[in-house]
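User: Can you model how guanosine-5'-triphosphate sits in this protein?
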Amino acid sequence: MPQLNLEQREITLKIVYYGPALSGKTTNLQQIHAQLPHHTRGEMVSLDTQNDRTLYFDFLPVEFGEGDFRIKLKLFTVPGQVVHRATRKVVLAGADAVAFIADSQRRAAAGNAFSYRDLESNLRANGVDFDRLPKVLQFNKRDLDDVKPLADIRESWAATGIPTIPAIAITGEGVQQTLTELLSALYRNLEQLHDFGRNFGITREDLILGVMRHFDSKPPNSSV
Ligand SMILES: Nc1nc2c(ncn2[C@@H]2O[C@H](COP(=O)(O)OP(=O)(O)OP(=O)(O)O)[C@@H](O)[C@H]2O)c(=O)[nH]1
Ligand SMILES: [Mg+2]
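Assistant: Here's the modeled complex, given as structure tokens:
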């Protein structure tokens, strides 16, 4: 559930990066962290990692002003390894939107499908209507050999209406687009649920450009 605080003029949105082990969820957050200026994002918290595998979650807060509102995005990753199912369910609780990070390699197809079903069942267990939850699908690791062609991916997912975004998260490619497409889907959902634009005076463009502007203010790979 979004936290919409009219008195304090604050909007808090929880966004969860979900997907199979090693698909690049943590890398997405690291890129967002690296691409945003200090005043827009807090420190990234990576809890309990072992050989670069997430054991609990990563957390990155992103905050910016839009009109007379503060918009706070709480970005989380789940641990993808199959054994951490219970943790994924806890981290997923209260998510306003989900970015599903798939590994594009053909040999990862079964792992992607398993994780997608795991997402569906964890949402159901949390009492969330899967079809209504704003989602995007990122097909990551496009730089590797033997990846499924984008046209085939798009054809398989066309009927769902869920946006599919190709990415190479290690270079940052597709990372911003994944977040902005997700915010776009999230805005549509908030419009339906809360008549968001009218109650908060924030348009879809405000929300998306609000984030984009900060990305634009800092070139990728800059150390500042
Ligand atoms: N070649 C390539 N490697 C990538 C890409 N994105 C991430 N990786 C690498 O894949 C490995 C796993 O990435 P992570 O971001 O840690 O994956 P994760 O989804 O967080 O994994 P879990 O925490 O176990 O669920 C790391 O070595 C990354 O550098 C990519 O686009 N291309
Ligand atoms: Mg991780």
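A couple of observations from the model: The CA atoms of residues 42 and 105 lie 33 Å apart. Helices lie at 25-35, 85-92, 109-125, 150-157, 175-194, 196-200, 204-216.
User: Helpful, thanks.
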